[in-house]
Automatic annotation (TrEMBL):
Residues 130-267 form the SIS domain. InterPro entries: Homeodomain-like_sf, HTH_RpiR, RpiR-like, RpiR-like_SIS, SIS_dom, SIS_dom_sf, WH-like_DNA-bd_sf. It comes from Lysinibacillus alkalisoli. One of its GO terms (molecular function) is carbohydrate derivative binding. It comes from the Bacteria. Keywords: DNA-binding, Transcription, Transcription regulation. One of its GO terms (biological process) is carbohydrate derivative metabolic process. Residues 4-80 form the HTH rpiR-type domain. This is Transcriptional regulator.
Length: 289
C-alpha cells in the first residue's frame, strides 16, 4: 500500500479537525517551505492560532509531534520537486497504451469509473440546494480561469440554453471588478477552481460571499483556497490524475446539476425550449435561404 503524503493525511483528516486546527492545516499546506524551517510557535503566529493548536494538529494527523511533521514536509517537498509534470504523467499514461487493443475502451472505462466515484461522494442535500439556487437566482455568475476555464465555459453555454441572465466572468481585473459591483444577494456564483489555483478566482469568491451571494465551489481538494469562501463545496479529488483526465467527470457533474435545475419547474423549462427552438429556426432559415 502506498504511504500517504503529508498533504493526503491533512486532506483525509481535514473535516474531523477543530476550526483552529483547520486554520493551522490550511496555513501549513500553503506554506510548507516556511513550516519546514520554523518552530511551531512561529507557525502558530503566522496561522493566527496558538502553538498548542499546531502541536495538537500533529497528533490529530497521527504524527508523534511537530518534529515528525517537519520531517514529512521535507520528504514531501523533495519528492514534489523530483516529480514529472501533470502533463508529462498524462502523456506517459497514454503512451503506455500504445500496444493495447481497444485503447478507447480502456480510456473511456477509466472516465466512467471516475464519474461513478464522484457520484458516490456527492451530498444529496448540497446537490438539492444547489439546483434550487440555479433555478431561483436572479443572475447566475460563473467563473473559472486557467485549467478551470473549459468547465466554466461549458456550464455557461449549456445552462444559457435554458434560462436567462447567465454571466461568464472575464479574467481581466477591470471586468471582474465591475461584475463584483453588480452582484447582489439575489444572485449566485459558481466557482471552478482546480490546481493550479488562480488567486483572482479566490478573490472573486471571497468578495461575492461577503455580499451575501450564494457561492458554490467545484474544486479538487478539501484544502483548496476557495473552500473557505464557498457556502457549498463539491470536491472532486483524484490523486495523481491530471486535470485533463478529470474534465469528463466535471462535465458529467455539470450536466447533472443542470438536469437537477430543470426538475425544479419542468413547465417553465419546456417553455424556454420552445422559445429557443423558435429563434433557432428563424436564424437557421435566414442563414441558409
Amino acid at each position: 500500500m502506498t504511504k500517504q503524503t503529508i498533504q493526503q493525511k491533512i486532506e483525509m483528516t481535514f473535516n474531523q479537525l477543530s476550526k483552529g486546527q483547520q486554520k493551522a492545516a490550511t496555513f501549513i499546506l500553503h506554506n510548507m517551505t516556511y513550516v519546514g524551517v520554523h518552530a511551531a510557535s512561529e507557525v502558530g503566529k503566522q496561522a493566527q492560532v496558538s502553538e498548542t493548536t499546531v502541536i495538537r494538529l500533529c497528533y490529530a494527523l497521527g504524527l508523534s509531534g511537530y518534529a515528525q511533521l517537519q520531517k514529512e514536509i521535507t520528504t514531501y517537498l523533495f519528492e514534489q520537486n523530483n516529480k514529472t509534470s501533470s502533463l508529462k504523467n498524462y502523456l506517459t499514461n497514454k503512451q503506455s497504451l500504445q500496444n493495447t487493443t481497444k485503447q478507447y475502451e480502456t480510456l473511456m472505462m477509466g472516465d466512467a469509473k471516475r464519474v461513478m466515484h464522484v457520484a458516490e461522494q456527492i451530498s444529496e442535500a448540497d446537490f438539492s440546494v444547489t439546483t434550487q439556487h440555479l433555478h431561483h437566482c436572479q443572475t447566475l455568475y460563473i467563473v473559472g480561469f486557467g485549467a478551470s476555464y473549459l468547465a466554466a465555459q461549458w456550464m455557461h453555454f449549456a445552462i444559457g440554453l435554458l434560462r436567462p441572465r447567465i454571466v461568464l466572468v472575464p479574467h481581466d481585473p477591470s471586468s471582474f471588478v465591475r461584475v463584483l459591483q453588480e452582484m447582489t444577494s439575489a444572485d449566485m456564483l459558481v466557482v471552478f477552481s482546480f490546481h493550479r489555483y488562480f488567486k483572482e478566482t479566490v478573490l472573486i469568491a471571497k468578495e461575492a460571499k461577503s455580499k451575501g451571494v450564494e457561492v458554490v465551489a467545484i474544486t479538487d481538494a478539501h484544502i483548496s483556497p476557495v473552500v473557505p469562501h464557498a457556502t457549498i463545496c463539491f470536491v472532486q479529488s483524484f490523486t495523481g490524475v491530471s486535470t485533463i483526465d478529470t474534465m469528463p467527470t466535471i462535465i458529467s457533474f455539470i450536466n447533472a446539476l443542470i438536469a437537477g435545475m430543470t426538475t425544479q419547474d419542468p413547465t417553465y423549462y419546456e417553455q424556454q425550449r420552445l422559445i429557443f427552438d423558435d429563434y433557432t429556426n428563424v436564424f437557421m432559415t435566414d442563414r441558409w435561404s
